[in-house]
Design goal:
Helix 3 packs antiparallel against helix 4 and helix 4 (98-109) packs across helix 8 (183-193). The protein is α/β, with parallel strands linked by helices. It has eleven helices and nine strands. The chain has a single domain, classed as Cytosolic phospholipase A2 catalytic domain, CATH 3.40.1090.
């Protein structure tokens, strides 16, 4: 998924926030960017904010288990020929393979010192999940949240940070991945942040039932903006946006795919397309590199 890192970094002021958006498999475009930019970013990071598959990318990267985890995922999903098979409901099985494969992959990533490396990071690794009003049953909440999210994308294609979810009563619930004490807890957290039935089940973490953090904000920059000492902010997106969205906006820099990623959000049948999506991020790191350098070099964090 990501190049493992083991280099020595110089001591620099940690004033950079890094946000990784969700987007299912498309989030691995961000993996390609990190493969190329890690040495520039990590010494400066003060906080990471993430949700859904963006949280997966961030935690696997910081665990230093990228190459092995990539190979594990390919083997674990071997034999998957359909992303949804509704006939499985007739025999009491989940219609999609994603939840089990995803959980097993995150558990593997946290083995062999991965969780310990993650917990030793010197900055918060914030993971966004979504709660909903207690009076609303789970299934209606899930349907309402997903409908609002998709409607807002259709009506406002240039809106990076959605608003409909919170207006309907969905609330952000945030955890620091460093507080997870076992691989099982970390997997629970990432699956909760990615909870998008029918592909992945309703999440359970911290004694709460939770849904995908993207229902509140799929690129949760607001979490990192609240951290004292942040002077510049890099937000990595996972799908193309209309002109004017990418680029510098004050002390925020938005980067993302210049066209659709090779892999779709929930396709587990074509592992070669995941590799192609990572490679796309690596190539396009050059496209965005000058703007990143300007953000990091800007003395006052504004431009």
């Amino acid at each position: 998924m990501l190049a493992d890192f083991g280099y020595t970094v110089p001591m620099l002021e940690r004033d950079l926030a890094l946000t990784l958006a969700g987007g299912g498999n498309r989030a691995f475009y961000q993996a390609g960017l990190l493969n190329r930019w890690a040495e520039r970013l990590l010494p400066r990071v003060r906080v990471i904010a993430s949700c859904s598959a963006g949280a997966c990318v961030a935690t696997v990267f910081l665990a230093g288990r990228s190459a092995a985890t990539n190979e594990f995922w390919k083997q674990r999903r071997a034999g998957v020929t359909r992303n949804l098979d509704w006939r499985k409901l007739l025999v009491g099985q989940r219609p999609a393979p994603h939840g089990e494969v995803y959980r097993d992959t995150m558990m593997f990533a946290m083995r062999d010192g991965g969780l310990e490396r993650l917990r030793q990071q010197p900055f918060p690794i914030l993971v966004l999940t979504t709660g909903w009003p207690h009076w609303l049953p789970t299934t209606p909440a899930m349907l309402l949240g997903m409908a609002a999210y998709n409607l807002e994308k259709r009506l406002y294609p240039a809106r990076v940070h959605p608003q409909f979810g919170r207006r309907l009563g969905f609330i952000p619930i945030v955890f620091d991945a460093r507080d997870c004490e076992t691989p099982e807890q970390l997997a629970d957290l990432i699956l909760a942040s990615s909870a998008s039935p029918p592909f992945t089940p309703v999440g359970r973490f911290g004694g709460q039932r939770l849904l995908d953090g993207g229902l509140v904000d799929n690129a949760p920059a607001f979490l990192a903006d609240q951290i004292a000492g942040v002077r510049r902010h890099l937000i990595m997106l996972t799908r193309p946006y209309p002109d004017g969205v990418l680029g510098r906006h004050g002390d925020h820099l938005y980067v993302g795919p210049t066209h659709a990623t090779p892999i779709s959000r929930w396709d587990y049948t074509r592992p070669d397309l995941l590799d192609a999506t990572i490679a796309m991020g690596e190539r396009e790191s050059e496209t965005h590199s000058a703007r990143l350098d300007a953000l990091l070099a800007d003395g006052d964090g504004n431009g």
